[in-house]
Amino acid sequence: MKKINYKILLVTCIVTLFPIALGLVFYDSLPNEMAVHFNIKNNPDNYLPKQLFIFGMPVLMMVIHAICCVITDITDKYPEANRKMNVVCKLIFPILSNVLYVVTIMYAVGNKLDIRKIVMFILGILFVVMGNYLPKTKGEINLLKKVSEDEYKKIARISGYLLIFGGLLCLISNFFSVYVSVFVIALIIIETIGLCVYSYFKRKD
């Protein structure tokens, strides 16, 4: 079995659980039902019991994060070459867990936040950072058959540009109506599907 970076795994798992402390600080001020999902008009449309949100959400995020970390470590054939990208990937869930938890708490105690703008800002920064590091990674993509190393580099470079472009669009969309953000997300999904199709046809024979 390939080496798992237990140090990063442990530290990031602990960080993922940090928000529980904030939940306990505001516990008495929080409603019994916590809004955890919002529609495009910034209205809550899904709720969780307070106790389940405060304790269950960080634990769920930690479990998902731990699984992703282990899979990343044991499947990466070039851990040294991909070290920076791996670190970025392993920071995603801890950052999301803390930011989204804090936003949810702040909304629950009466702060009228624009959830759409917060989410698009987070996505924008995340895409730009990942797009910057992706072209520098090394590896192989399995789409029924593996692509060559040269094709991987090309696909990684294109993916990086698309991520940066999509991230910038996410940030810019915050200056316009919510429907612009919806269009940007749809465009990113279409770009991703197109890249997957391109990668499939570039596989080895």
Describe the structure.
It is built from seven helices and four strands. It is mostly helical and 205 residues long. It folds into two domains: 113 residues, no CATH class; 92 residues. Strand 3 and strand 4 form a beta hairpin. Helix 3 runs antiparallel to helix 4, helix 4 runs antiparallel to helix 5 and helix 6 runs antiparallel to helix 7. The model has no long low-confidence stretch (mean pLDDT 83).
Counting DSSP H or I runs of 4 or more residues, the number of helices is: 7
Mean pLDDT: 83
Query: Roughly how many Å is the radius of gyration?
Result: 19 Å
**How many separate structural domains?**
2
Strand order of the largest sheet: 1-2
Largest sheet: 2 strands, antiparallel
SSE topology string: HHEEHHHEEHH
Uncertain segments are none
Shape: flat
- What is the count of β-strands? 4
Distance between the termini: 30 Å
| Helix fraction bin | 55-70%
Portion of residues in beta strands equals: 5-15%
Structural class: mainly alpha
Oligomeric form of this entry? single chain
